[in-house]
């Protein structure tokens, strides 16, 4: 199988590609992977194997239709991770979110249609549902996104579904809870707090810290994406949960303990605008239909994540935005 993976110089897509190339997904040992990534501030080639004969890296923008026409032929499936992914950035500048997340997704769908690409996995997020005071969202829940980021992802999901309904493209959508793990950009809560706490720097806790998130290790998310790629049904949506719900204050307490720091490093700062209070998904569908179950316990995986950041302090220092490190295949 030849798989086109977008955004795999970033946190989650790179984990998916590294795992696939190292034989972690049975049945995919002979797959070839093409990565298309723009190498924004969020992407780095440090996240990908430097020399793997089964991997081709294309430095490019998913909005670039002529480029996609050159890259798409010969691929059997698309796994679409590329996105502007940070909520706070969407609050101060939404344009890039609409461009990449909505128009970029549409450009990919159109290319998949033109080139007869078999399966299109749209990697999305539980934030498209909005915020839920109690209970859990099923896949039938209406979309009520609150941040420009979440709205751009919800828009992309709807466009993707329309290509299935209108054109019969085999689109499968995943909606996952908050991820954590090695290699996440230190703008997100867990890596921001870990990198700062390891250096004895203060960390900014928004509002009163009572907002609640459902946490999932990136490896569990990627395994679920692979199950959807292999056995998901066309036009279907699959929630992916972690089952571990923590308030931000509780998560902060765990990170302080793992980094050997005290609460005096925690600064209460102004709340995020429009801050969603609580996310929680019902993922019984993917468990029932595809046999998904998370494998990582929060305690072990969070400890491993802290250890990874302690051992990889230079991970984000080297690459400049747009640097391709000489890996790029020319088009
Ligand atoms: P990330 O920000 O770490 O990586 C995004 C990648 O996309 C980067 O490598 C970046 O260079 C690339 N990119 C951005 N714009 C591009 C463009 N126009 N063309 C080509 N490449 C471009 O993101 P992530 O945390 O790995 O998230 C991956 C996907 O998973 C996203 O679609 C996100 O919405 C979704 N998701 C993330 C989480 C989470 O907790 N991080 C949870 C659920 C779903
Ligand atoms: O400095 C901070 N202080 C703080 O209190 C940051 C960066 C975050 N927070 C809070 C806001 C959230 O309630 O922590 C929680 C988690 O924040 P983020 O790590 O920014 O994640 P979130 O906004 O929940 O969105 C994430 O999960 C869903 C990802 O960034 C999205 O890409 C994904 O779709």
From TrEMBL:
<dbReference type="Pfam" id="PF16363">
    <property type="entry name" value="GDP_Man_Dehyd"/>
</dbReference>
<comment type="similarity">
    <text>Belongs to the NAD(P)-dependent epimerase/dehydratase family. dTDP-glucose dehydratase subfamily.</text>
</comment>
<keyword id="KW-0520">NAD</keyword>
<protein>
    <recommendedName>
        <fullName>dTDP-glucose 4,6-dehydratase</fullName>
        <ecNumber>4.2.1.46</ecNumber>
    </recommendedName>
</protein>
<dbReference type="GO" id="GO:0008460">
    <property type="term" value="F:dTDP-glucose 4,6-dehydratase activity"/>
</dbReference>
<dbReference type="InterPro" id="IPR005888">
    <property type="entry name" value="dTDP_Gluc_deHydtase"/>
</dbReference>
<feature type="domain" description="NAD(P)-binding">
    <location>
        <begin position="4"/>
        <end position="303"/>
    </location>
</feature>
<keyword id="KW-0456">Lyase</keyword>
<dbReference type="InterPro" id="IPR036291">
    <property type="entry name" value="NAD(P)-bd_dom_sf"/>
</dbReference>
<dbReference type="InterPro" id="IPR016040">
    <property type="entry name" value="NAD(P)-bd_dom"/>
</dbReference>
